[in-house]
Amino acid sequence: MLALLILACVVGGALQRVTGMGFGLVAGPFIVLLVGPLEGVLLVNLVGAGSALLILARVSRGVDWRRYAWLATGSVTASVPAALLLRQASGPVLEATVGLVVVLAMTLALVTSRLAGSERRFRTEARPPLLLTGLASGFGSVAAGVGGPPLAVYAVLDRWDTLRFAATAQPFFLTNAVAAIVAKLVFTDASFPALSAWEWAAIAVAAAAGIGLGELLAPRLSREATRRVLVVLAYAGGVATLVRGLAGSFA
């Protein structure tokens, strides 16, 4: 199990560095499959926060702090209500939720990317769309460790510069993950996986190695190739998690 966790963290960290997002989408479903829904999502939040912090050190000059502030406000506001709603959910239900959120969110992002092909520019620069995006991302992060798709949808509709988006996403994901962790530890029975110190260290090294790998791959991979890999892995992990959760619910 540890070897698979390490592999998920390496792949997720690399995609996070290359695309600006993707750790929760790609690594999240597989981590939930390996350690369970409650512990798995907390682990995704924790490693995702650490990855975002490491990447932020590299891209901080490109952060749009005004947009970050409104996005983070929505995310933090959603964290406690989301935790309270999920408090009574069973393990299989949470597991199915993780998979369903990933599949639906990725599908929405793909549909939205097609809308962006038109000449019309969507007016999303105002505060309400930023707050709504933050709210949706905050709920997804608490429920499934997946906060990226709403932000990706906003970025597509707004035609947000990709470099500015990737930079601004990092402090937002950091805030999003920390808020989700605090809310779940305080308002639910969730706890971190029972791993030894050396296993935690191995996961931390794997996440850092993934970011380093992404640093090397970023200039060598086209955006389209990276996007295709992200979509395939996210769908595979999401469907697998959804099926196992449904199987457990009806067992």
From TrEMBL:
Keywords: Cell membrane, Membrane, Transmembrane, Transmembrane helix, Transport
Transmembrane segment boundaries: 30-56, 68-86, 98-117, 129-157, 197-217, 229-247
A cellular-component GO term for this protein: plasma membrane
Subcellular localization: Cell membrane
Stored InterPro entries: TM_pro_TauE-like, TSUP
Membrane topology, record value: Multi-pass membrane protein
Highest taxon listed in the record's lineage: Bacteria
Keyword Ribonucleoprotein: no
Protein family membership: Belongs to the 4-toluene sulfonate uptake permease (TSUP) (TC 2.A.102) family.
Name of protein: Probable membrane transporter protein
Organism of this sequence: Antribacter soli
